[in-house]
Amino acid sequence: MSYNLAIWLGISAIGRDEAKMRYAVLCDDDGYVKAVDAIPDIARFIQDLTSEYPEFGQQSRDDCPWSAPFSIFRDAAIVCLLPSYSHMLGPWVKSKARHYGLICYDPQQEMVQLPNQLYGTPIARFTPPVGGIPPGQPVPRLIMPDIPTATPAPPTQTESTPPPTPPTTIELIPGTTYFDPPTVQVAWGKQTLYDNSGIATTRKSDLVHRIVDIAGPLREEDIVLYSAAAVGIKFIDRQTTQAIGSTIELLVHSGDLESRNGFVYIAGQSAYPARIARNDSMSRPIESISQEEIAEITMAILKTSPGLTNESLTTQAAKLLGFHSVGDHFRDRIAEAISLLELDNRIDDNGSVIRTLEPA
Question: pTM for this structure?
């Protein structure tokens, strides 16, 4: 089993169906190259990944997050993660792709992430060649035609390079706030994380409780990420995951935290945040957002509109959360939120229009 992410350099925006076809073409091709032979953006992207987590086969099996060697083309790559690492490292790989101006396609969720410079460009259409790819024809040529082979001359002193397009700010609506990852720092060293003494246990418990209090509800995998970052750990191995996981279990057992449906909450929490993306480069994976929070975001949208169809509600929720395409998994999460709100008698869904039953 493998959790795959496809990354390539593009010259225009691309929709989900086009990305799906391009990913299929990549999977059918075996014209791999070495990372050093890829175009600079792909080469730097691969080097960045492997500087943090060495390539498949170059570290112990227990510490390796990759399920297979990368498939590297001239201007594309397929990154293969172990499913157990997908929640922790999938968002990290996607953020690296955006940093290098690359398109990232997640075939598991059928979601496309565009780099900032491609927002607002016309959506490209892609038609695979009849009869497959001719022998010797590199797939990246189909993905990004007209790649210049000559190095462009450096700009003269009279020329100016336009600044990169900044991320689009997503406006708050009443009832919502922005989500910002917790940036908790501690004074004690990382070895305390693996220490089972009373003082170390107290310090770890305080850290985890503080992170959940600031940014919860959170998945356990995200608590591990934020806790590890607080003590300066970059590579999250099994020992780190177990140490933080044990701390979460201890806090749940003591009644300080609650664990429900894969998320961790402050004990007794009955009101939930509605946190949206600050801009289009800061979206959280939909799996990292609790059902209660999605429901609150849904309520905030409905309170600003007299009534919405299911499709309009789903589209608006996706925009607020920083997604530029809506896959089946996202639709399922919104449908679950609507069902939850119906059970609580907070909305009315007559089959065509959904309305809030709460005052604006």
Answer: 0.59
